Amino acid sequence: MSSSDNQRLAASVVMIGFEGTRPNESVRELIRAGAAGAIFMRRNVTTPAATFALSTELRAIAGRPFLVSVDQEGGRVARLREGFTSLPSLRQIGQTKDPETARQMGQILGRECRAVGFDLDFAPVVDVDSNPQNPVIGDRSFGPDPTECARFGVAMILGLQQESIAACAKHFPGHGDTHLDSHLELPRVAHDLARLRAIELPPFRAAVQSGVATLMTAHVVIDALDPELPATLSSRTLPELRAEIGFEGVMISDDLEMAAISDRFSISEAAGRAVAAGCDLLLVCHRADRQWEAVEGLCRWAEKSAANHDRLRQASERVLRLAGKLAPSVAKSFEASALRRPDALAFAERFARDASHDPTERPPPDAA
Question: Is 254 noted as a catalytic residue in this protein?
Answer without folding.
Answer: yes
